[in-house]
Amino acid sequence: MPITQAVSDAAQGPVPKLVPARMLNEFVYCPRLFYLEWVEGLWEENADTAEGGLAHRRSDRGGGRLPDAEDAGEEAWSGEARSVTLDAPRLGMIATIDLVEGEDGTVSPVDHKKGRPRADGRAWEPEEIQLAAQVLILRENGYRCDRGYLSYREPRTRVELEVNDELERRVREYLARLRETAASERPPPPLVDSPKCPRCSLVSICLPDETNALRLVRERRARPRRLIASRPDAVPMYVQEAGSSVRLSGGRLEVRLDGDVVGSARLVDVLEVALFGGASISGPALRELAAAGIPVTHFSFGGRFQAMTVGLETSNIELRIAQFRHADDRESALRLARAFVNAKIRNARVLLRRNGGDGVEQAVSDLQRLARRALVVPDADALLGIEGAAARTYYRTLSLAFSERARARGFELGFERRTRRPPRDRANAVLSFLYALLTREAALAVRRVGFDPLLGFYHRPRFGRPALALDLMEEFRPLIADSTLLTLVNGLQLTPGDFFERSGAVTLTSPGRRAVIRAYERRLGTEVVHPAFGYKVSYRRALELQARLLAAYLLGDVPEYRPFVTR
Q1: Which residue of 6, 10, 17, 349 is surrounded by the most CB atoms within 10 Å?
Q2: DSSP string computed for 307-372
Q3: In this structure, are residues 178 and 25 in contact, taking their beta carbons and an 8 Å threshold?
Q4: How far is residue 355's CA from residue 158's CA, in Å, rounded to a whole number?
Q5: Which residues, listed in sequence order, are joined to residue 113 by a DSSP beta bridge?
Q6: Is the omega angle on the peptide bond into residue 378 within 30 degrees of 0, that is, cis?
Q7: What CATH architecture applies to the domain 235-309?
Q8: CB count in 10 Å sphere of residue 496
Q9: CA atoms of 370 and 386, how far apart (whole Å)
């Protein structure tokens, strides 16, 4: 039996016996949202979820005591109990109830909601089903319970809900459908043009309009709505001075050097922490970052990407099973590898055509021919040869894109060919550092989606390198790294003092790395029209978007993977 089949069979265990009542709410609202959140373990915070947390803050602190069912009935208990957790094995559910109110031996659950009821004053169906489930759970535990209340925060009003036989039937019917969905190997399809999507916390993970646009391409659906933010709100924190350390203080990350605070940022504003060489981080800060889902990446003194420290893995095992299956399938892996290499060559061709002047015509023509051949090669070895030929053509010509102004200022970067270990000239030193930064960005993107970064389709697993990240970054090398190099050189943003040369090897100095990082971050924040969807996204967001589209292809949500190619 193939190993991926064995893993798949083991993963397809039974659905847990107890379903949280909150998940029943999510299922009624959107079955795909439920699947992504409960089955695959995916979560994304947004303003609505944070506000919802505030609505539950008081009840989460607990308070009061719910007596046993017999005592509540015999003693005609009246009172309140907050944050009450009860299970109902016969029903197959569990719930943490915000508030249980007792009056004359009868109890009623109260569920706090941040929003508003419907215009007619009734509760929304997902909330009705969740509250009705809480009533049934109380009944199974022996309490007298006929009704519940939904307490809405915005209008400060309560909606009463009586749980009759019809409502109980609907709860049980939804619960059965939920279990059937949870046992499936694939998530339900996304909603189509639904008003529920714009404010959903998982919209940037689900990608409903984007998935439908690719899945239903023959129906010529309208252009996807702009549902995801063009760029993340948070930004990376780079710490590269030897001896500096990152500490946690009052919800802020502080960078200290020789006992002085030289930088700080709120935890919520930090996308990741990048440590270079002798920079360090404290244990409490590392634990808090891991718990918040903020990765810490580690670079050598010379700027080589070495490792990343992350929190617990997502439970998206089905994606990893699909990843391993496709990687084991030679034809499937080759299809993806062709797409990666073709996109890389086409984007390199566009960069030369836009920046190279009159001397690049032959190289542009050769790259166009090689891009076409990359789509029809019979095997991975032939594809590797195509990529090598394209790389030689491209790098041989790239220096023609350096401006005369840069040459006249005496800052001509020698660039005969690509040299990596070690870089032999300044251009290669800059590119090596940029590619290390881009590898890190791609590794974080594929991991956020739920992939194993070490298993690729074109780059084969070897010595712990993030092969899938290298696959994904192929199409972005010219767009992000090489373009940043041209900006630095032609904008005269680097000086000879930004480099250190010894024994024929060239590396960036600390000020040089800072200059490169600034230009790289500006490029990642640049917005570009997505070639498939027609709306603007930053290059950082585009990287993650491509990782999610790759996941959608592997899971069968869309018929093909479409790489990111500029015109």
Answers
A1: 349
A2: EEE--SPP--HHHHHHHHHHHH-HHHHHHHHHHHHHHHHHHHHHHHHHHSGGGGHHHHHHHHHHHH
A3: no
A4: 64
A5: 152
A6: no
A7: Ribosomal Protein L15; Chain: K; domain 2 (3.100)
A8: 10
A9: 6
- For residue 505, what are the β-bridge partners? 502
Note the pLDDT tens digit of each residue in 322-376: 999 999 999 999 999 999 999 999 999 999 888 877 778 888 899 999 999 999 9
Question: Can you tell me which residue has the tokens 């339900």?
Answer: 188
Q: pLDDT-based confidence at 19, cuts 50/70/90? A: very high
Q: Rounded to an integer, what distance in angstroms lies between the CA atom of residue 239 and that of residue 246?
A: 8
- What is the sign, positive or negative, of the torsion defined by CA atoms of 317, 322, 328, 333? negative
Would you call 374 helix, strand, or coil by DSSP? helix
Residues contacting 416, CB < 8 A, separation 6+: 396, 425
Radius of gyration of the chain (CA): 28
Q: Cα–Cα distance between 497 and 247 in angstroms, integer?
A: 32
Pair of tokens at residue 84: 């009450």
Residues paired with 148 in a beta bridge: 161
Cross-strand partners of 481: none
CATH, range 17-175: 3.90.320.10
Among 508, 75, 562, 1, which Cα is nearest to 300's? 508
For residue range 182-201, what is the model confidence (pLDDT) as tens digits? 988 888 988 888 888 888 88
- Domain ranges for the chain, please list them: 17-175, 235-309, 317-554
Of 385, 389, 372, 354, nearest to 482 by C-alpha is 354
317-554 maps to CATH 1.20.120.920: yes
